[in-house]
């Protein structure tokens, strides 16, 4: 089995989905501490002609609080503001209608916790693209919160019977290949491939939210962008 473990991000960038597509099972690491000013509750799009953040506001989030306990602000104008910005900025994009509907389906849902909302955003995109990857959340399985860092990831690999563990390049500073080799697990680092495509901007801006990618690609073309290679 090929396995990946990552925090849930809100409509993350293409490289995140290249990782999802590369594995058999993807585990949302949702019971670790929330990361302020990270990607769990925000991402970037080209809005009004400029790269800007869109953010789901939170109710008193703390860096000492597990992701799965962080709550979004009660229903207010933020959902309508994000939806209006999407419509104003992307209404003329080739795939606007299905992607706008997908985004609003997540943003206007009744989900109160940002961890689950972010997971739902990833699952919705994976389903739209027809990915066969299975999903799980560390909250619901494994029962190993006393472990930390690589030790916990290795234990998740053991419980899942994983033979290959995939991570994005940032993991090179976190994981010692020797520890994985000792447990007969192959460690791979997937290098994202962010090829230029048409955007509503004067220059190409890589690593925006997957929503930007999907606005300008049909389903088949978007799936082709998920193809990439991992290195040991």
TrEMBL record:
Pfam families xref list: WbqC
Entries under InterPro entries matching the protein: WbqC (IPR014985)
Name by which UniProt lists this protein: WbqC-like protein family protein
Highest taxon of the lineage: Bacteria
